[in-house]
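Quick start: read one record
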Amino acid sequence: LRFGRLVIQKGEATATKDGADLELTPREFELLAYLASHAGRVFSRQELMERVGNYEGYGGDVRAVDVAIRREKVEDDPAQPKYIITRRGAGYYFQQEP
């Protein structure tokens, strides 16, 4: 998957930006790849826990998703994200860089 300066190689479980490796944990990579594979679609924390974390019917703290979404590793300015966007009250989605 290529999104401007960001390249996600699902088969190798790697992501690069401007040719430099992003040092992502396996969970961080899984979330990034899943969101990017479904660009534009909003996922709730619960959905992400179930689809990426394989926690079917997860009833624990879904804020664990917030910890795993590490914008500072992907975004130039995490305060002004261009890839991983929060939709207040709904969840997260991935958008291609404008």
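The helical segments are 26-37, 45-51, 64-68, 71-74.
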